[in-house]
Amino acid sequence: MGRIAYVNGRYVPHGEAAVHIEDRGYQLADAVYEVWALFGGKLADAEGHFARLERSLGELSIAMPMSRTALTMVLKEAVRRNRISEGSVYLQISRGVAPRDHAFPNPPVRPAVVVTVSRVDRAASEARAAKGVAVVTTPENRWGRCDIKTVGLLPNALAKQKARAAGAVEAWFVDDLGFVTEGASSNAWIVDGDGRLRTRDTNANILRGVTRLTLLDVIRNAGLEVDERPFTPADAVAAKEAFITGAGSLVLPVVAVDGKPVGDGKVGPLAARLRRLYIEQAKAAAI
Questions:
Q1: Is the whole-model pTM more than 0.90?
Q2: What angle (nearest 5°) sits at the alpha carbon of residue 226, between those of residues 265 and 34?
């Protein structure tokens, strides 16, 4: 059985799935998206992703295309039809289809909805986490509303390509003050020389990562503390450990920044522990 996509009310073969040429997501990046990790065919961090989706839509004045209950049913049906247990679910909602004009269509049109499901090799992911990954840095050049999860990701795509060309997995954006903001598709963390967990606060024009939010709960439940304070690439290299968080990476140890080893260049015990604790909690709470 081939892959199945959901497009505007219909489940169709993935290879035949299409949107209208005047969909505003395609022409103007006038759309938002969310990605849920799948554990055992269930949606991880569901509440956080739905809450962020609703916030992103509200910030752009795009109506929810259906109730949260109905949308949950669509996502789960897409998972069922694809027969995928371990993977991810991608949801995109655009303002809809209208003759091309920068201003919003008046009267409003129906939002367009696309859902796809992808398989993830968890064994390969665990092997990569056990080895750790490298990141590179790149100047911050994104717009001023990175808190909205829009599909306008060209700077992120260019940053990811820079990372790939350097043999790295992720790129960290660095602002004009020399501080790391976040990754191209993840939040950035270090365990500094004093053993303190540090990550950028969400007032710094970064995405309010849902995995980040869940991990904060995991950290508190483990009796640990987090210092939401910025750090530089040099701080990261001098740190004991570093890692990234996201729906795709989960909690992924970082062992090198711009070709320089973090700490002893090996996966640290705290990052490994937090990955295990996060996955345990995500699995237990998945719906």
A1: yes
A2: 85
Distance of CA 32 to the CA centre of its chain: 12
The pair of three-digit structure tokens given for residue 271, joined into one six-digit string: 């990052």
pLDDT of 1 strictly over 70: no
Residue 210 to residue 233: CA distance in whole angstroms:
24
- CB neighbourhood size of 159 (10 A): 25
Residue pair 190/236 in contact by the 8 Å Cβ criterion = yes
- Annotate 203-247 with DSSP letters as a single string: TSS----HHHHHHHHHHHHTT--EE-----HHHHHHSSEEEEEET
Query: Using omega within 30 degrees of 0 as the cis cutoff, is the peptide bond preceding 155 cis?
Result: no
Whole-angstrom distance, CA of residue 216 vs CA of residue 222: 10
162 is catalytic: no
Catalytic residue among 42, 149, 260, 266, which?
149
Q: Quick one: residue 60, left, alpha or beta (phi over 0 = left, psi -120 to 50 = alpha)?
A: alpha
Q: pLDDT (tens digit, 9 = 90+) per residue, 188-246?
A: 999 999 999 999 999 999 999 999 999 999 999 999 999 999 999 999 999 999 999 99
